[in-house]
Write a structure and sequence with these properties.
- With 424 residues, the chain is α+β, with helices and mostly antiparallel strands.
- The protein contains nine helices and six strands.
- The chain starts with 7 loop residues before the first strand and ends with a helix.
Length: 424
């Protein structure tokens, strides 16, 4: 953003130029922060409905825990049953059965008697569920980071390509003016000049294609991050340090298998408690009368205790244990396979990273030679001591080397992105 020299901005006048310079610095600094990898990753994470969903699920489990506590507190209910069975001229229900009428208005209290270990087992089930959701949320965060980072790297590569093609095109345009004069002065043949002109036009088309590709990939990046932005800006080079690999057992991707193992143990405990005696105490108080005899005295109360003891259910307990055993076997199979794949994946990525970095060094050396050759050709161009065809070949070799460098730098970042995905 440019500030007017008179210090005016949107109708406001600043008396000191220092304030204008400070405001300009803040605006430029804010703009610079919006084209970094961290900015887009943070936007994607904060806008992700999936992450918000997981957070809400964890909050819901907290409510479920409170509901369990509440269910084992005394439960108070009010009940009222009222009916009248008249007998008219000897016709009606037998009073020995109906008592003629029944009026009741009672307040009942009941409470299940449960051991502290039983409660802890139920709370442990909720805690493990919350841990599983949290771990899944962390994996989803890694998925979002990897996806956004990969798209950012791709878009930044487009930006670098666009910038390079623009620089070469500007250079060719300047040389076009010189060559055109030299061709008119018969220092170079018209066919030589046309050869150069074809290269210039090809570069112009390449520039348009690179611009379209950059805008397309930038729009995809904004879409992934949930940013409603139709404008495009230049991106800063991604800063991607290579993180250390944790042991497989410490990885969030392995943690889910640990949680599943604990869930299987907890499920066994839940089954065990479900086959223990269940005791419930209850009581009520209020008015209960048939209105047949001293109804005004029918106020009272009652207390009681009930117990349920499972005896035989067709061996369902053993069947439930068998299902847990099968689930545990499946978990162990996945866990073992993950350990093997985890190490193999990281070894492969490390080897790819080393090979790519070695190749980048060789390409940089090649670029130095190609760039020096192009400069030498351009210096000899004005004197007609170099063939245009040789200049075109030197330019093509230089652009090929630069493109190869850009591709391998992008590949290197993508490999680091994959490594960092598994590093949490």
């Amino acid at each position: 953003m440019d500030l007017p020299l008179n210090g005016k901005l949107t109708g406001y006048t600043f008396k000191t130029p220092i304030f204008c310079l400070l405001l300009l610095f803040l605006v430029q600094n804010l703009s610079a922060q919006n084209n970094t990898l961290d900015f887009y990753v943070s936007k994607a994470l904060s806008n992700s409905p999936l992450i918000k969903d997981y957070n809400n699920q964890i909050r819901t489990i907290g409510i479920d825990s409170e509901m369990i506590r509440a269910s084992y507190k005394p439960q108070v209910n009010g009940t009222s049953n009222n009916y009248y069975a008249p007998v008219i001229k000897g016709w009606g229900y037998d009073n020995a059965i109906t008592n003629g009428a029944n009026i009741s208005a009672l307040v009942g209290v009941s409470k299940a008697i449960v051991s502290q270990k039983n409660l802890q087992t139920q709370f442990e089930a909720l805690r493990l569920t919350a841990q599983g959701i949290k771990n899944t949320s962390q994996i989803s965060e890694q998925d979002i980071r990897r996806t956004v980072t990969a798209q950012y790297i791709l878009t930044y590569g487009d930006w670098q390509q666009l910038t390079f093609i623009q620089e070469v095109y500007d250079l060719l345009q300047k040389e076009d003016i010189i060559l055109k004069k030299l061709a008119q002065g018969n220092i170079y043949k018209q066919t030589d000049y046309l050869t150069f002109l074809v290269t210039l036009q090809q570069q112009k088309l390449a520039l348009k294609q690179a611009d379209i590709q950059y805008h397309s990939d930038y729009a995809t990046l904004a879409y992934l991050c949930g940013i409603n932005d139709t404008s495009t800006i230049g991106l800063q080079e991604p800063i991607l340090p290579v993180y250390q690999f944790p042991e497989a057992e410490n990885s969030i991707f392995f943690k889910q298998y640990v949680i599943d193992s604990l869930k299987n143990i907890n499920s066994r405990q839940v089954i065990d408690f479900s086959y223990r005696p269940k005791v419930n105490v209850f009581g009520d108080g209020g008015y209960n009368s048939s209105l047949a005899y001293t109804p005004y005295k029918n106020f009272g109360a009652s207390i009681g205790i009930s117990m349920t003891l499972p005896i035989y259910d067709g061996k369902q307990r053993k069947m439930k244990y068998s299902k847990i055993d099968i689930a545990e076997q499946t978990r162990k199979s996945y866990s073992s396979f993950f350990n093997h794949q985890y190490k193999q994946q990281l070894d492969l990525l490390s080897a790819q990273l080393t090979s790519t970095e070695d190749l980048i060094i060789e390409i940089n050396n090649q670029i130095k030679y190609s760039e020096g050759l192009v400069r030498a050709h351009l210096q000899l161009l004005t004197t007609g001591e170099v063939r245009i065809a040789d200049l075109v070949i030197a330019l093509n070799n230089y652009m090929t080397a630069k493109n190869l460098l850009a591709q391998n730098r992008t590949n290197r970042w993508q490999i680091i992105n994959q490594i960092n995905y598994w590093s949490r």
